[in-house]
């Protein structure tokens, strides 16, 4: 029996200077690691490199004394290329991560930056 596994990735797509550093998926074991990464994402949002599209709470709420909810999710988009990302944490199951959820949709901007 032959099994085909299809993976969605952006390896063949031109790199984007605005978001390339966030292209790798991450899984966080320690809450401290998650919060350090969330702070990094918050700074990039404040710089205007990523847009927060939708979320279950503000990024700032992650740093309050009380956790905002059992599950928190932040969906972001690169302002330059349109790649979509998600930062999430499930405190009930003890899992948190960061991942690429959508390919670049603003290819003209990437092609222009490459030339």
Can you offer a commentary on this structure?
The chain has 115 residues and is of the alpha+beta class. It has one domain (20-114): Double Stranded RNA Binding Domain (2-Layer Sandwich). Helix content is 22%, strand content 28%. The chain has helices at residues 31-47, 107-114, and strands at 26-28, 50-55, 71-78, 84-90, 95-102. The protein has a five-stranded antiparallel sheet, with helices on one face. It is elongated. The N and C termini lie far apart (45 Å). Residues 1-11 have low confidence and may be disordered.
Any idea of the CATH topology?
Double Stranded RNA Binding Domain
SS elements, strand count: 5
Beta-strand proportion: 25-35%
- How would you describe the shape? elongated
| Biggest pleated-sheet summary | 5 strands, antiparallel
């Amino acid at each position: 029996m032959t099994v085909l596994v299809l993976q969605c990735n952006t390896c063949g797509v031109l790199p984007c200077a605005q978001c390339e550093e966030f292209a790798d998926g991450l899984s966080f074991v320690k809450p401290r690691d998650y919060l350090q990464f969330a702070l990094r994402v918050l700074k990039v949002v404040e710089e205007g490199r990523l847009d927060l599209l939708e979320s279950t709470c503000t990024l700032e709420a992650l740093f309050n004394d009380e956790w905002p909810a059992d599950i928190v999710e932040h969906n972001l988009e690169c302002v330059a290329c349109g790649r979509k990302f998600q930062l999430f944490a499930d405190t009930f199951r003890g899992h948190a991560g960061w991942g690429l959820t959508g390919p670049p949709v603003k290819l003209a901007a990437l092609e222009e930056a490459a030339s």
